[in-house]
Each structure stands twice: as C-alpha cells, then as structure tokens.
Sequence to fold (188 residues):
Amino acid sequence: MVVREKKVDPVNGKKYSPIFSALYLSPIFHIFEERAKNLKIPVLFLSFIDNRLFILQEKFFEKTNSLHICSCNIIFLLFEQFGLVIEHGKTEIFHFSRLHDIFNLPSLNLSYIGGLILHSKDSWKYLGFIFNRKLLFHQHIKFYANKALSTVKCMKMLRNSIHGLLSYQKCLLYKTCILPIILYRFPL
Fold:
C-alpha cells in the first residue's frame, strides 16, 4: 500500500518529510487496529519506513480474502477521513499454504474502493529473501548462488594482459565481494 497526501503543506507549499508522515500516520493505524479488534478481524499490521503489511491467518483462502477486503475498506475510509489517498499500484497479495497438490488461489477484488484486482504471486521478495508458497527456499538459494558465481566469473576481467591477479588480491576480492553475497551481509 502506498500513501500520498492529497495536498501539500499550506504554510510552505512543500511535501511533508518521512518522519512527519510517520507521525501523522501512526494515529490512523492505531485507530485501524482498534476497529479491526472490535470487528474481530484477526489482522496483524506491520509498518516499516514506506511499507505497510497486513498479515491474516486463516485455513481457507476465501475467508482470508474476505477479511482482507474488510481491512482494506476500514483503512481506505480512515485515510479518506484524514485527507489521504491510497495508491494501489504497488499493492500485492501473497498466500502461504501447506497444501501438497496444485491449487487455484482466488483473486482479491479491491476495485469497489478504487483498487485493483489482485492475483496471488508464486514468489515474494521481502527484505532480500525470496519466499514461495510452501516456504521452501530453493529459489532463494539458487538466486544468490548464481549471483555469487557470476561475481566470481566477472573477477577474471580484472587481470591485465601480462598476468592475472596475485593470490592475496584474489583472497581480498573473495572476502569483500563473494562472502557478503553468500552469507547475506550485503554492504549498504
């Protein structure tokens, strides 16, 4: 869910800072959690810098979708009351499942509140981790192993026309370029 202001600051005509936006949005999310609790919607809401995450746990996908629609309706009305607009372009839906056979997931229709029709994705990348529906990390491991191998192959281009890299240079490159990828310590 991406949020943007309808208006800019009337005093100086500038958009608000991320800190001010977080301070402005926190009471809205508190009201949302209270209304969801009163309606007995078992939703867990997490908010990061510019990401909002609704977590719903139910046995059936249809019930999860109906609870999600109720949650979206509550948050949409709250944002409208506070003069904010939700941009639905970055909204995603993802289902985890223990089912062993192939299953068709129902789509989530948010068009009546100005949103999109969301279809569940096969994989989800979050904070550098790649999740699939069964929480098997084969795709995550394959992605980062290929990234480390391609980095090793690119290191061959660092030699000159007379000779290759010295052994201490190779060791230094390995420690600074390959190990962070393999051990998930990406430099910021």
